[in-house]
């Protein structure tokens, strides 16, 4: 039997991959499973989006290949929204890249910018397509641990010079999955300046730009002076509009960088279903009507989750963005063992910090993607597992 090569075997297990099968097995055993694993809410997309998708799907031309161009109206909607939301101008045809979800674009981009010997700086814990893209491109990941010490920020000054000299990509994601950290503007200014000095591509993953609370408005990296020289920014329809399954997102960058990603994609895919892009146009057009109400639902869930998990004995910051709580475990409780027992004994799915790499050890992630009542129930169950661990440690 032919065997896969080293770059494949270097891939770790994907932390969410086992969840559906395990959930099914538990449900068949009659367990009342509460899934707080994936960042995938139980809420509906904007009704206008589903109507536009259905209408477009009935038009024969929409069922043909989209190719890289896709639906011009989608590019124009993205460009218009980037202007309304951030005050930034991007040419819809040379500076916007439609994606089959932002994960796809993030992973494929590395193929054009990394080769053997090049370093990619990767936040750990972090979204795993950074690591996947790097390993599949035969780049060398340099994992920067996101810990409370640096407010969960990647601090380039803490990285050895010889690593920085070889760095071709820096992945940043704020608001952050899984820590829910946000990046202050002076920090972003420092990072952009350093990337320019190092001639390092800044891959800015802004999947959670619209999911923020308490008056916080996440910026685009392109609001920072000089970012156009070195950055590409990824956006997603998934979290903003509850459209995770649609697989639709985009990247924006200056034409040379956008064109590089677009060229890679011409060899690996043939575009998002154009009816999906038509639905996405309707969603983007409903942004000002839809997003505030949707964020209010997440805020209610956040408040319920924070209260319940704090009452159950866990500590963690109140997130100002994303759909995640990043909760600390007492020393001596391995996150994988905790998550495993929480699932096996109490039927609650959470993600152990170690699933995001060793830098995530000591924490676990809760997605506040279901009702306040179910979140409260999950916290009570998690508290029981915590107490039984504490008894064992004592
Ligand atoms: C930080 C981050 N980036 C990107 C994505 C990918 O989003 P999508 O591929 O659905 O657009 C996710 C999804 O969980 C994420 O958490």
Largest beta sheet, briefly? 7 strands, mixed
Please bin the fraction of helical residues: 40-55%
Poorly predicted runs are none
- The total count of strands amounts to 12
Order of helices and strands: HHEHHEHEHEHEHEHEHEHHHEHEEEH
CA-based shape? globular
H/I helix tally: 15
Distance between the termini: 51 Å
Radius of gyration: 21 Å
Assess the beta-strand content as a share of residues: 5-15%
Structural class, please?
alpha/beta
How are strands sequenced across the largest beta sheet? 2-8-7-6-5-3-4
Provide the residue-averaged pLDDT: 95
- Cofactors and ligands: pyridoxal-5'-phosphate
Write the layout of secondary structure elements.
Layout: H1 6-9, H2 19-28, E1 34-35, H3 47-57, H4 72-86, E2 96-99, H5 102-113, E3 119-124, H6 128-136, E4 140-145, H7 161-166, E5 167-172, H8 185-198, E6 201-205, H9 227-230, E7 231-236, H10 237-240, E8 249-253, H11 255-268, H12 274-285, H13 287-311, E9 324-328, H14 335-346, E10 348-349, E11 351-352, E12 363-367, H15 372-393
Parallel strand pairs: 1-10, 3-4, 3-5, 5-6, 6-7
Antiparallel strand pairs: 2-8, 7-8, 9-12, 11-12
Helix pairs in contact: 3-12, 4-12, 5-6, 5-11, 13-15, 14-15
This protein binds pyridoxal-5'-phosphate.
Pyridoxal-5'-phosphate (PLP) binds at residues 39, 101-103, 127, 173, 177, 205, 207, 236, 238, 244, 249.
